[in-house]
Amino acid sequence: MDATTAMYVAQGIHGLAYGMVLFLLASGLTLIFGMMGILNMAHASFFMLSAYFCYQFQIWTGNFWLALLFAPVITGFFGILVERFLLRKVQRLGHIGQLILTAGLGLIILEGVKVIWGTESKPVLVPTYLQGLVNLAGMEYPVYRLFIIGISLILLIILSLILYKTRLGMVVRAAVSDADMVNALGINVPVVFMTVFGVGTWMAGVAGVVISPILTVFPGLADQVGMDAFIVVCVGGFGSIGGALLVSIICGLLNSYGVQFFSQLAPILIFIFMVVVLTIRPMGLFGERE
Amino acid sequence: MLLEVENLNTYYGESHVLQDMSVAVDAGEVVALLGRNGMGKSTTLKSIMGLVKPNSGTIKYKGTSIFGHPPYRVAKAGIGFVPEERRIFPNLPVLDNLRMGIKHGRHSSGGGRNPWDFERVYKHFPILKDRSNQKGSTLSGGEQQMLAIARTLMGNPDLLMIDEPTEGLSPVMTKEVRDVLAEISEVGVSILLVEHNLKVAMSLADRVYLMGKAHLGYTGTIEELDANPEIRARYLEV
């Protein structure tokens, strides 16, 4: 294999890995928005918080796997508490109240991590067998990127099975289109909301852990990746998991190939993509409402 | 009485849309709630269902207060609601729309010995069986109305509250919906019906309530209303 092909492949894997992390983050965001009508401004902050938990766990236990297991669970539990005891209380104030609450929560988390962990970047180490390159069919691939893609694919499959093969999934999909009607049919919608919020936050937490060895952990993490996740949700269509998957991968690839071919334009390529799509389809690629 | 609503007051912001509204439905009865547009008929149903928060009054179902309960608890208590906009789930196939209506952990009389299940619903609504794998959004208006009714029946309500079921339907479809409601009533489900088509309402109902602006104007049996053109003119004619 010549060097140029190898470079394309490597960039492709990088893009795919980032795209899948974006998907983990955006799928929770889009489900929460689709179902509860809440644009959760704190979603990326939960993602960052989980990365910090991961760092802390690694300090205490020295084990990446334990961090991967527990940091997202704690983050998800935190998300459930926020839904149950904060968001539900401001429901009667409407969407503006929820927007202000989650934006404020994002600020509190941002300042909180600065107070606890400081402002400098914290490293997260992966086990040696996840480092370096692996040779498959004559080409070399970065192992950790493949690991990210693999773990995201597993979560994608589990999420799809739950959404499309279980009663809970059916209820969630129905609630995305009309939560009040689901409520009037005798289904305890507040509990479903809390569950979806918890699972969405947990997935953001997984995304935060798996990306932390690549980007390191720092207070700007939420803004950097969170902006991309918002774009994914807008372009893919609010409430659409399929849209989030497709646009996440496109964004990931745009990012990595963009750096390679138009390095000066790379940071704005994703915005150009958003403007083009939303001009043609204001509700996003797979969205049903604007 | 199965359902007893007394002195119900509901506000939308500053506007007092229900003023001391009272309505009652006895077991096995079909009761029609009539009146011109904007009088508060839909709001009455939504307030009972908990979809709109009433400010004061009493709502009793089978003797127990359900005032201020969230919709899912009202539904679990045994009240089924078919809203004016039908609100079927457009992204779900017909089969899943029906599944959404099933209330787990509730084995009600369903108005008799014969609780509603797929078999029985398909017998009353054969079109839904043919369309069971189609998405809700592909159904015609009349079919969507059938689906909305069938979906609620899957939860085996003792009382069905249904808002403008024949609105926008062709005369043929209107007659079909009317006949289905008559069948449902025959098997013992009580019905609280909001209906603009006076002929349909009069052919189904045992008693009527006529609503003036935000409050109850007149109540009586169908025979009394039939014999009283002056009341009909005051509350119903545009």
- β-strand percent of chain A reads under 5%
> Topology as H/E string of chain B?
EEEHEEHEHHHHEHEHEEHH
Distance linking N and C termini of chain A: 47 Å
Sheet-strand content of chain B, in percent, reads: 25-35%
Specify the helix fraction band of chain B: 25-40%
CATH topology of chain A: ABC transporter involved in vitamin B12 uptake, BtuC
Our count of helices of chain A gives: 10
Radius of gyration of chain B: 17 Å
- The overall strand count of chain A is 2
* Unreliable residue runs of chain A: none
Task: Work out the helix count of chain B.
Answer: 10
CA radius of gyration of chain A: 19 Å
Q: What is this entry, summarized?
A:
The complex is a heterodimer of chains A (290) and B (238). Chain A is mainly alpha-helical.
Give the tags:
heterodimer, A: 290 residues, mainly alpha, ABC transporter involved in vitamin B12 uptake, BtuC, two-stranded antiparallel ribbon, 10 helices, 2 strands, 3% strand, globular, B: 238 residues, alpha/beta, Rossmann fold, six-stranded mixed beta sheet, four-stranded antiparallel beta sheet, 10 strands, 26% strand
Explain this structure to me?
The complex is a heterodimer of chains A (290) and B (238). Chain A has one domain: Orthogonal Bundle (ABC transporter involved in vitamin B12 uptake, BtuC), CATH 1.10.3470. Chain A has a two-stranded antiparallel sheet with strand order 1-2. Chain A has 290 residues and is mostly helical. Chain A is built from ten helices and two strands. Chain A has helices at 3-36, 43-61, 64-85, 94-117, 143-165, 167-184, 189-215, 221-236, 241-261, 266-280; strands at 133-136, 139-142. The radius of gyration of chain A is 19 Å and the shape is globular. In chain A, helix 2 crosses helix 8 and helix 8 crosses helix 9 (241-261). With 238 residues, chain B is of the alpha/beta class. Chain B has a single domain (3-235), classed as 3-Layer(aba) Sandwich (Rossmann fold), CATH 3.40.50.300. Chain B has helices spanning 41-49, 71-77, 94-101, 118-124, 126-130, 141-153, 171-186, 198-204, 222-226, 229-235; strands spanning 3-12, 15-25, 30-34, 56-61, 64-65, 79-82, 159-163, 190-194, 207-212, 215-221. In chain B, strands 6-7-8-3-9-10 form a six-stranded mixed β-sheet, sandwiched between helices. A four-stranded antiparallel β-sheet of chain B has the order 2-1-4-5, with helices on one face. In chain B, helix 3 (94-101) packs parallel to helix 6 (141-153). The mean pLDDT of chain B is 89. At the A-B interface, helix 6 of A face helix 2 and helix 3 of B.
